[in-house]
Amino acid sequence: MIHIFIDLFHVLIATVWDVLPIVVILFGFQRLAFRTPMPNRKKVVSGFLLVLLGLAFFLEGLEAALFPLGKLMAQQLTDPVFIAGDEVGRALEWWDYQWVYLFAFAIGFATTIAEPSLLAVAIKANQVSAGSIGIWGLRIAVAIGVAIGIALGVFRIITGTPLYWYIITGYVFVVVQTMFAPRMIIALAYDSGGVTTSTVTVPLVAALGLGLASTVPGRNPLLDGFGLIAFASLFPIMSVLAYAQLSEWSTRRRK
Amino acid sequence: MISPKAILNSLLDSLRDLLPIILVIGFFQIAVLQQPIPNFGEIALGVVFVVIGLTLFVQGLNMGLFPIGETMAYSFASKGSLIWLLSFAFALGFGTTVAEPALIAVAKEAAKIAADGGMIEANEPSMASYAQGLRLTVAVSVGFAIVIGVLRIIKGWPIQNLIVVGYTGVVIMTFFAPREIIGIAYDSGGVTTSTITVPLVTALGVGLASSIKGRNPMVDGFGLIAFASLTPMIFVMAYGMVV
Hints:
The complex is a heterodimer of chains A (about 260) and B (about 240). With about 260 residues, chain A is mainly alpha-helical. Chain A has helices at about 1-35, 40-80, 80-85, 100-115, 115-130, 135-160, 165-180, 185-195, 200-215, 220-225, 230-255. Chain A is globular and about 70 Å long. The model of chain A has no long low-confidence stretch (mean pLDDT about 85). Chain B is an all-alpha fold. Chain B is about 85% helix and about 0% strand. Chain B has ten helices and no strands. Chain B has helices at about 5-30, 40-80, 80-100, 100-115, 125-155, 160-175, 180-190, 195-210, 215-220, 225-240. In chain B, α3 (about 80-100) packs antiparallel against α5 (about 125-155). Chain B is flat. At the A-B interface, α1, α2, α4, α5 and α7 of A face α1, α2, α3, α4 and α6 of B.
């Protein structure tokens, strides 16, 4: 178990390296553009240190606990022997993969709820909207979008249909929804597409995509393993727009 | 200072954020795959780490990342120099993306695909330079995205017009880009926005929108991340067509 603490130290060093360019840019521009020291420097610096330390703990914890099991699970669930059950050797159809769809949906939802950058955006949106956008409401709306997106993305890999059909149809849908959505939610909805896929979601979802693309006959892991992230960034836009439309509609009805 | 009760509460919040993953993995391991949970002690320690990490992150967010993003936005707005603001926007987008570990991983993967598909020679140097070029392309595209996004906030352009233009760009490019690059291009939009970039960029946008007269932080302040996930798709497909 001691190795977890050693790994934690390594992750911390790596995180410091990732953050370094950002710190240089922030402090560099502060010096060059404003020629004044950063206001509240002590507080800001300790905030940065907390973020660094927090991310290191977070990433190492995921790496030690959840990722190995989750990745192994993605492999086992997509294994043809598991899917075919008692009738090993028969040709598999897309409906034989029920557990994979359920796993895709559940893991998409669960990892999104734990995603720190979504939490950050939700906290900010809650502050800016003076409470009218709930932190949990937004997170759940986004998580449902990711869950549907990943499940559909898995269906695409299993059936081997082209990625761009889904993405272009999705775009058309988003554009139509935008015309009817309340104006204040639009920018936030578009943002929530980008924030859903980072530290927690990407590794597990990538393992799922790779597992499927290498076991489903006729799929090339290099070509078909990609695309799940794209689903996970497109569908939350729809679900957040839908969430705003539904809540507007229900307030109007109550009046 | 922070009271012990507040710390306990925020630890509990983090535990609640994590609960769905624990339940999903537990359910599939025990009920579906019907296997025991291996290394229980190690997993428990990992979960404790994740909870501590998330708690510290949220504390640091409110102390460091949000205030600094907003302070910079106010300072730029009161200084009134567009050149400085736009060069900051570009530097922030480029600088936070070029070293992003997820992007480095995707670029490597993409080089493998390009070599497999015969688009480049299948040797170490040409793959490395392909991956390097792709990384720079994505980083430039994110820098460009933040610049456009900041301009939008200043001018008050409606976000949906720009997004529709961007989507149209993606659709048109899809028909011309090599088939092998499309999946990576679509995914690259998602991997560019890291956990540290998102709060900074969000605070910057909201700060700008609240310090410029006539802008609404809710309508105009968000949207920078949206651009940062859209432009890489277009730029990566263009890269696939040119290289």
